[in-house]
Amino acid sequence: MRRLRDMLGGPAHWVLLVGFIVLLLLAVIFLLPGLVVRPRGFVEEADRLKAESDARATLLRALGGLALLSGLFVSVRTLQVNREGQITERFTRAIDQLGDEKLDIRLGGIYALERIARDSSQDHGPIMEVLTAFLREHARWEADAPQPSRLPADIQAVITVIGRRPEQRRREEQGRGSRLDLSEVHLRGGNLARSYLKEANLYGTHLEEANLHGAHLEGANLDCAHLEGARLVDAHLEGARLDGAHLEEARLHGAHLEGARLYGAHLEGAVLEDAHLEGASLGGAHLEGAYLHGAHLEGAGLGRAHLGGASLRGAHLKGAYLDGAHMEEASLDGAHLEKASLDGAHLGGASLDGAHLEKANLDVAHMEGAYLGGAHLERARLYGAHLEGAYLHGAHLEGARLYGAHLKGAYLHGAHMEGADLKGAYGLERSQIEAAITSSETVLPELTDNP
């Protein structure tokens, strides 16, 4: 190819090449039909000439169509090259604007990059990398440095542009497996409502009092992130990682946290009314004083979680794992804890009025002074449970297993204990048994009058 370019380097050589191509085409047009058209047997001269003429006409039409297609290809390619050149020029100019000292010029550069990213699939990825790098450089959290009470206009503009990427571009990102890196960035008080940050890296990012209403953070990494007082109403955090994250006083009404990881997370005083935490991992999480009315925690892991004083009225905790959880003084009135595991859980002074604990595991649970009026504990396991001074008026303990349970001073008036197993129970007096509703199938301890 190099020798050919050298041979055709001058204008004279190009003239010769064009002349050769023209002669070749003429030869094809005038000679090829005579070679192709060979009638069998005797044919009149006029018929032969007509056949050659028809073949020549067909060949001319084919060559004309080929020329038209070639011209169209050249035009499209020229337009594409020109467009790519324009995009490159726009990209370079926008980058220059992004580094300008004047705010209005920087803003112009940010929105220019957004337009380019929308127009060019090829440039979308690099532009997102430029914008996220801009945030990490110009909005990096520094513990000792004073932080502004509100986001600067250019920082807010960048996070807005990133958060409103078109659906087509987001799908392309997913196909490439690319993730936005917004780790350890200062975005306190920022407006990220309905932003799309799926699977983004927000490790250690500061989003205190930020507006994340309806934001999409599915699968995002928010480990050690700061979201104190943030608004996350109806936010999507399915499968997100929030280990050690700070969400104190955050508003998470109706938020979706299904399958999310919140090991050791801080949610003290957070509002999680009607939030979805099905299958979430909250081991050791701090939810003291949190508001979880009607929250969905079915199958959630809350082992050794801290829920002291939390309000879980009507919450859904069916099949949840709460072994060793601290729920002292918590409100669980009408809560659903069917088949939940509360082995060794701390429920001293908790209110479980009308709560559903059917078939729950409460072995060695601490329920001293708890209020269980009308609670449903049918066929529940309460081996060695501590129910000293508990209020069980009208509670349903049919078929429950209370072997070795501690019932000293428990109020059992009207409690349903038909078929319950109280063998080896401690502190149970005859007066308590007489006040309860028993049956011939109830298994009573040998000594009912000794504390």
Question: How would you portray this structure in words?
Answer:
There is one protein chain. This protein is an all-alpha fold. It has a domain at 1-32. Helix content is 33%, strand content 0%. The protein contains eight helices and no strands. The chain has helices at residues 2-7, 11-36, 45-98, 103-119, 121-138, 153-163, 167-176, 430-435. Helix 3 (45-98) packs antiparallel against helix 4 (103-119), helix 4 (103-119) runs antiparallel to helix 5 (121-138) and helix 4 runs parallel beside helix 6. The longest helix has 54 residues, at 45-98. The chain is elongated and about 125 Å long. The model is unreliable at 1-5 (pLDDT under 50).
Briefly say what this structure is:
The chain is mainly α and 451 residues long.
Give short descriptive properties of this protein.
mainly alpha, disordered N terminus
**Chain-averaged pLDDT:** 88
Query: Percent helix among the residues?
Result: 25-40%
Number of distinct helices? 8
Structural class by sheet pairing and helices: mainly alpha
What characterizes the major β-sheet? none
Radius of gyration: 38 Å
Low-confidence stretches: 1-5
Give me the count of strands: 0
Tertiary shape = elongated
Query: Approximately what portion of the residues adopt beta-strand conformation?
Result: under 5%
SSE order = HHHHHHHH
Gap between N and C termini, in Å? 105 Å
Task: Please specify the SSE layout and strand pairing.
Blueprint: H1 2-7, H2 11-36, H3 45-98, H4 103-119, H5 121-138, H6 153-163, H7 167-176, H8 430-435
Helix pairs in contact: 2-3, 3-4, 4-5, 4-6, 5-6
